[in-house]
Amino acid sequence: MYLRRIMLNNIRDFSDFEVNFENPDDKSARLWTLLVGGNGVGKTTLLRAVALGFASEADANAMIASPLARMINDQNRPASIHLEISEKRDDKNFEILETIIDWVDDHEAVRTIRKLPSWASKAFVAGYGVARIRTGRDSVRPRRLIDSAETLFFYDSLLTPVELTMRRLQDFVGTEKYDLAMRNLIEALDLPPHTEISFPAGGGVEIRSGPDRAPHRLEHWADGYRLNFTWIADFFGAAMAADALTRDGTLRGLLLLDEIEQHTHPNIQDTLVIELKKLWPELQVIATTHSPLVVLGTDPSELVVLKRDHLGKVNAELGPSSFVGFTAEDILTDKAIFDTDARSVSDKAMLDQYKKLTERDDDDLQPDERKELAQLSSRLRGLTGRSTPDGQEASHRAVDEDEANLVNDLKALREKYGL
Which of 44, 132, 167, 205 sees the fewest Cβ atoms within 10 Å? Predict the structure, then answer.
């Protein structure tokens, strides 16, 4: 099953929103989509909307009861979630999942409109919110979507204990496939290549890595490794419970992942998506990120930028067509992506003060202000790598224009030589 398109109406700031999840060249289902945008543009809301769109009516009403999951913008009219899905990646005919959210007696109520073939009703969807850290779930009952996407809606939710899931995974797929999955997982977490994960007879999980090969229990592991390993193990467990994991190790379905870079060091963020693609080569993933390094490690065609227009409406926009020659700072400052000033607080304060002084007539400047302007001009030559104009001419130019020239020079070279 593959998600091909979502349309939202009256869902928070998505007053009339549409985005597709297809490759631009052949219109097949896109396996990876990375959502970026400032705080408050609805990245998490979009993930929750997808989960609600796939959920049964009972599960959706339980999920939307979370105080975090308020969805309707205008309570005087219904909100809607429209999903288009296909059984295969290259299908041209889609099935429709329609979910309506009404405001009824001071709360939101979900009703679903669908008549689906068996393949669609058995679709595996899982979601993980930013609080995917605690274990202790009772794993006796079969997993439903409300279980596999619970941390998207309830931040105090529990994940399945790692030992239980990994032992079941090893038994289910067999030693060879399990070992391959573990090797890919070790690479994704940037662990030493000969790291071993085992389950001693007395219980628990042990990790052996480093030159001494001494065993370390999972609970003593560094948080960055332990917490990511925990949610990934839970995801494998959810897939097994939903019959989405085959005995040859293939996992198919849809993963919704909020802040994919969480608990990862910057030195592995640019390869994080690449390594997870190796771990789950046939899985469809929609993830959010605030990390320019994660963006730098993806294909530009997989990037969807959420931006608010002058009326407050959120729209989906495309980023650059290529990341060739880009650095993490380019991603951070690019107006089509993060549009963030990468300079230090002290440098920005210096530039602001320089701009204030140069915008005034020279005759109005006091001696101490002239001295300050000269000092700032000298310091800014080192900051920008250019000479700043002196005297009256300097008073009519802002330093941010000089900074922009540096960026434009580099981009002009890229365009000239097709970089």
Answer: 167
